[in-house]
TrEMBL record, chain A:
InterPro entries: NADH_DH_su5_C (IPR010934), NADHpl_OxRdtase_5_subgr (IPR018393), ND/Mrp_TM (IPR001750), NU5C-like (IPR003945), Proton_antipo_N (IPR001516). GO terms for cellular component: mitochondrial inner membrane. This is NADH-ubiquinone oxidoreductase chain 5. GO terms for molecular function: NADH dehydrogenase (ubiquinone) activity; NADH dehydrogenase activity. Keywords: Electron transport, Membrane, Mitochondrion, Mitochondrion inner membrane, NAD, Respiratory chain, Translocase, Transmembrane, Transmembrane helix, Transport, Ubiquinone. Its EC number is 7.1.1.2. It comes from Mesoplodon densirostris. NCBIfam families: NDH_I_L (TIGR01974). One of its GO terms (biological process) is ATP synthesis coupled electron transport. It is found in: Mitochondrion inner membrane. Residues 134-416 form the NADH:quinone oxidoreductase/Mrp antiporter transmembrane domain. Residues 422-601 form the NADH dehydrogenase subunit 5 C-terminal domain.
Automatic annotation (TrEMBL), chain B:
The gene is ND4L. Keywords: Electron transport, Membrane, Mitochondrion, Mitochondrion inner membrane, NAD, Respiratory chain, Translocase, Transmembrane, Transmembrane helix, Transport, Ubiquinone. It comes from Mesoplodon densirostris (Blainville's beaked whale). Core subunit of respiratory chain NADH dehydrogenase (Complex I) which is composed of 45 different subunits. It is an enzyme of class 7 (translocase). Core subunit of the mitochondrial membrane respiratory chain NADH dehydrogenase (Complex I) which catalyzes electron transfer from NADH through the respiratory chain, using ubiquinone as an electron acceptor. Part of the enzyme membrane arm which is embedded in the lipid bilayer and involved in proton translocation. The lineage of its organism: Eukaryota, Metazoa, Chordata, Craniata, Vertebrata. This is NADH-ubiquinone oxidoreductase chain 4L. The chain crosses the membrane at residues 6-22, 29-49, 61-81. It is found in: Mitochondrion inner membrane. One of its GO terms (molecular function) is NADH dehydrogenase (ubiquinone) activity. It catalyses: a ubiquinone + NADH + 5 H(+)(in) = a ubiquinol + NAD(+) + 4 H(+)(out). Its main location: mitochondrion.
Length: 606, 98
């Protein structure tokens, strides 16, 4: 008997404390930020212990606490599932949140509502942990909706700005469409397997029909911004940079992928669901990578990069490799959060300038940020032996050597090379060349609140891949032998992308400005997807229904068909048939002549 | 037939032609109607008395009653027309024209 349970529940309970303290005096002064940050650090250390226990002795646990309600035959309890996925994810998430909270003590320093900001970040973290540790679908749904709501509140943090409100609403709407899929799956599981507990679902029906898995794929597409439900993620960059770093790069957007990973015993038996996930992921990764090539806002480029990596994770699930996808989630969190923190440092130091066409030459001015940015971009592209390599390369190897859809594979490889291209673009425009911003004198990175988080994430994004792959228990047999050209696929396409991008970028140094081509406009406006899909279908739907009810039903059927037609026919008939002229004398004269004529004709004796 | 009957029938015919061929005043039509009624009354009374057809002795009285009602209606119409147009010229009666 060990303290596994105690440490897990302690981790979750520690995080509740600042929420409860928000009613007291501590909330009013600026000690609250340090308090929240230190609480997150404590939670991280207490969560490391069960993770170490798992790695050492492979001990998993299922904690079932409190029987809430029994509705006829459905028993709902508060239950936590501590297995490989949740035990590995919790320390990663807590580490990144700790770093981001320390960063946002510097970034949001001048914000008057900074204590509320920290409370919102903490609430988000709690709901994310509820999602990750849930053992039944009801608790997962609570966490799911919770992260959606916190995302809304945090994206619209600067609510005085109309674009921020629109983006927050857009996030909620697209997530809602995914929720429909989730509720569909919940209803199917309830009516067919009589439970929402994961254990019973996996035990009863090893190969379900397509409907619940399609619902789960739809939910993942909504939450993880797959193609068709993707525009909310670039728009979510309206929120502050710590929000983008935490929610929309590391934690919330992986919730959809995490859901599919949780259901991997069902996914591995259904070829159709895997094919759907594969195609959707391949399409997403290529489309968003192409869109990232022509964006000019540094946060949007990184957002599209996140979207592309999410597509890659979906492709991995489609290849029936959930553990690789999970590894990619963990490593991707590190370098993506670090990229966002570096971009936050650049933005704040250039006085809130986000357009990369107006940055440049930061190589010498911000050396530490430069280092972190370059290491992050290299880790993103899968440079050998950095963090991204240990997760991305096995994915590409598994894709090239498995019996799968060749089109999806081709798209994924193209997107990998495009990753290198837009990473080079970021580095080239922000760091190299001559400065293109007005001369500012207070560019510095001396603040330890800024440096320490980036330093920690830098160490993490270099070493995490190595540490994780050497310590996790192997769940699937990795592929050991493959031809040399397949093994070097990822590396060669990435190198090609780097060389190509550098050449093209050098060529654009001294060009005359030409008008953007139609293709570039296509990409800059995200393939016209938001332009067409946000206005046109709702307008068509609403105007059609209005015309149906007003013109057709009300005017036509109830007014024109019977009453007006009848009156119209009567009036026309009466004007046609009645032709009185009032010539009385003539009428009387005609009587007389008729009578005399008849008298003569019938009385004449002949 | 006897000369008396022919006389009365001639009177009726003259009134009838006068009803159908009046020129401008509605009043002449009404007067001709009265003349028709009168001649008819005399004719019916003459024939009934001459043939001792006692059962039909009430016919002249009933004829007179109905003729009186109809004369009243005719006069009422004349008064209405005279109120509307000031005169009773027939050319004014063209409201049904379309």
């Amino acid at each position: 008997m060990n303290m596994f349970t105690s440490f897990i529940l302690l981790t979750l309970l520690i995080l509740m404390a600042p929420i409860l303290m928000s009613t007291t005096n501590l909330y009013k002064n600026n000690k609250y930020q340090y308090y929240v940050k230190n609480i997150t650090l404590c939670a991280f250390t207490t969560s490391l212990i069960p993770a170490m226990m798992y790695l050492h002795t492979n001990q998993e646990m299922l904690i079932s606490n409190w029987h809430w309600v029994t509705i006829q035959t459905l028993k709902l309890t508060l239950s936590f599932k501590m297995d490989y996925f949740s035990l590995m994810f919790i320390p990663v998430a807590l580490f990144i949140t700790w770093s981001i909270m320390e960063f946002s003590m510097w970034y949001m320093h001048s914000d008057p509502y900074i204590n509320q900001f920290f409370k919102y970040l903490l609430l988000f973290l709690i709901t994310m942990l509820i999602l990750v540790t849930a053992n039944n679908l009801f608790q997962l749904f609570i966490g799911w909706e919770g992260v959606g709501i916190m995302s809304f509140l945090l994206i619209g943090w600067w609510f005085g700005r109309a674009d921020a409100n629109t983006a927050a609403l857009q996030a909620i709407l697209y997530n809602r469409i995914g929720d429909i899929g989730f509720l569909l799956s919940m209803a199917w599981f309830l009516s067919n397997t009589n439970t929402w507990d994961l254990q019973q679902i996996f035990m009863l029906n090893q190969s379900p029909p397509n409907l619940p898995l399609m619902g789960l794929v739809l939910a993942a597409a909504g939450k993880s911004a797959q193609f068709g439900l993707h525009p909310w993620l670039p728009s979510a960059m309206e929120g502050p940079t710590p929000v983008s770093a935490l929610l929309h790069s590391s934690t919330m957007v992986v919730a959809g992928i995490f859901l599919l990973i949780r259901f991997h015993p069902l996914m591995e038996n259904n070829k159709f669901a895997q094919t759907m996930a594969l195609s959707l992921g391949a399409l997403t990764t290529l489309f968003t990578a192409i869109c990232a090539l022509t964006q000019n806002d540094i946060k949007k480029i990184i957002a599209f990069s996140t979207s592309s990596q999410l597509g890659l994770m979906m492709v991995t699930i489609g290849l029936n490799q959930p553990h690789l996808a999970f590894l990619h989630i963990c490593t991707h969190a590190f370098f993506k959060a670090m990229l966002f923190l570096c971009s936050g440092s650049i933005i704040h130091n250039l006085n809130n300038e986000q357009d990369i066409r107006k940055m440049g030459g930061l190589y010498k001015i911000l050396p530490f940020t430069t280092t972190a940015l370059i290491v992050g971009c290299l880790a993103l592209t899968g440079m050998p032996f950095l963090a991204g390599f240990y997760s991305k390369d096995p994915i590409i190897e598994a894709a090239t050597s498995s019996y799968t859809n060749a089109w999806a594979l081709l798209l994924t490889l193209t997107a990998t090379s495009l990753t290198a291209i837009y990473s080079t673009r970021i580095i080239f425009f922000t760091l190299l060349g001559q400065p293109r911003f007005p001369p500012l004198t207070n560019i510095n990175e001396n603040n330890p609140l800024l440096i320490n988080p980036i330093k920690r994430l830098l160490v993490g994004s270099i070493f995490t891949g190595f540490i994780l792959t050497n310590n996790i228990p192997p769940m699937t047999t990795p592929l050991m032998t493959m031809p040399l050209h397949l093994k070097m696929t990822a590396l060669t396409v990435t190198t090609l992308g780097f060389i190509l991008a550098f050449e093209i970028n050098l060529n654009t140094q001294y060009l005359k400005h030409t008008h953007t081509s139609n293709f570039s406009k296509f990409l800059t406006l995200l393939g016209y997807f938001p332009t067409t899909m946000h206005r046109l279908p709702p307008y068509l739907n609403l105007s059609m229904s209005q015309k149906l009810s007003t013109s057709l039903l009300d005017l036509a059927w109830l007014e024109i068909i019977l009453p007006k037609t009848a009156s119209f026919i009567q009036m026309k008939a009466s004007t046609l048939t009645s032709n009185q002229q009032g010539l009385i004398k003539l009428y009387f004269l005609s009587f007389l002549i008729t009578i005399i004529l008849s008298l003569i004709l019938f009385n004449c004796p002949e | 037939m006897s000369l008396v009957h022919m006389n009365i029938i001639m009177a009726f015919t003259l009134s009838f032609m006068g009803l159908l061929m009046y020129r401008s005043h509605l009043m002449s039509a009404l007067l001709c109607m009265e003349g028709m009624m009168l001649s008819l009354f005399v004719l019916v009374a003459l024939v009934v008395l001459n043939s001792h057809f006692t059962l039909a002795s009430m016919m002249p009285i009933i004829l007179l009653v109905f003729a009186a009602c109809e004369a009243a209606i005719g006069l009422a119409l004349l008064v209405m027309i005279s109120n509307t147009y000031g005169t009773d010229y027939v050319q004014n009666l063209n409201l049904l024209q379309c």
